[in-house]
Amino acid sequence: MHPKVKEVGEKIRSMEIRGAGRIARAAAEAIKMCALDYQGDLEGFRECLKEAKNYLISTRPTAVSLKNAIYYILMRTDVRSLEEAKRSAARAADEFIRNSEMALERIGKYGAERIPDGSTVMTHCNSSAALSAILTAHDQGKKIEVIATETRPWRQGYITAKVLAKEGIPVTLIVDSAVRHFMKEVDVVAVGADTIASNGAVINKIGTSQMALAAHEARVPFLVMAETYKFSPETVIGKLVVIEERSPKEIVDPEELPGVRIRNPVFDATPPEYVDAIVTEKGVISPYLAYEIIKEEFGAWIERWWK
Ligand code: RI2
To answer: Among 50, 61, 63, 211, fewest CB within 10 Å belongs to which?
Structure first.
């Protein structure tokens, strides 16, 4: 396997590279390298890319962004000559990365509209898309405060809190179990997404669905910031989103608790009825429009999956 693919795959698996958008862009870059460096015939090229695809996808099973990024490239290599296929792969990878960065900017703009001046925003984990909206609102001169959850076991909330503090945004870090306690001080919740299913369910960092429940109870708007490549075409044909379970060692050393079963699911599903809106680069939509987005963005792919 191409060394870059191996390296990126290992970093994604170990979460050195993490975040649904970031892993997608890193995978696109790795596939590009793999394509450009390939020596051999067209058939071998396809095999090589397929091997890279299967390996990269296996590293994190939940975030569809990873799969969508790779398929975005592979779908564009269906050409007759090797040289053309290599060029198409490189072009598609660059295009995916550029579009993904532009999407983040757009989401920032649209999302900021939903963050009022003087408001307190609650966020979970570390989402570039949610941060884009919060930072844009701040840049627009809005006086906002943020409550960020720690996000056990990886504590990605520390990254979020540091970024916000560096920008001069007042930020309070809380433990995940304090979400409901603080919800009464919150005006809007903004989180990211790893995958959005065709029924509008949002799969995001474990704890997101509890936050959505608490927001629903307190009548606080619950917003999800997600690029359209976080929508899952596979869910249209009935596949269920696999929730990744990682090593219990990420929580505690099992030897400290003999006889105790420890489980570490890293994502959960928030049903659409708890989501007020999904902010995408194509606009702010109801979660119930997920199927439409999937059809528009991935119609051709769905056909392929059916075959
Ligand atoms: P952006 C992360 O997953 C979090 O669940 C976060 O909310 C989501 O990806 C989206 O992140 P992890 O890789 O794409 O930390 O918005 O497990 O950056």
So the answer is: 50
Pull the structure tokens for residue 41: 């015939």
**Phi, psi angles (nearest 5°) of residue 206:** -50, 135
CATH code at position 51: 1.20.120.420
Specify whether 194 is catalytic: yes
DSSP for 252-304?
S-GGGSTT-----B-EEEE-GGG--EEEETTEEE-GGGHHHHHHHHHHHHHHH
294 and 157 fall within a common domain: yes
Burial class, 269, CB count within 10 angstroms (exposed 0-12 / middle 13-18 / buried 19+): middle
Q: What is the mean pLDDT of each run of 10 residues along the chain (307 residues)?
A: 96 97 98 96 94 96 96 92 96 98 98 98 98 98 98 98 98 98 98 98 98 98 98 95 97 97 98 98 98 92 68
Catalytic residue among 34, 48, 125, 176: 125
Structural domain that includes position 64: 3-101
Say if CB 3 and CB 55 are below 8 A apart: no
Same domain, 79 and 151: no
* Of 196, 205, 222, 245, best ligand 1 pocket probe by most atoms within 8 Å of the beta carbon: 205
Domains of the chain: total: 2
C-alpha closest to that of 116 among 42, 166, 190: 190
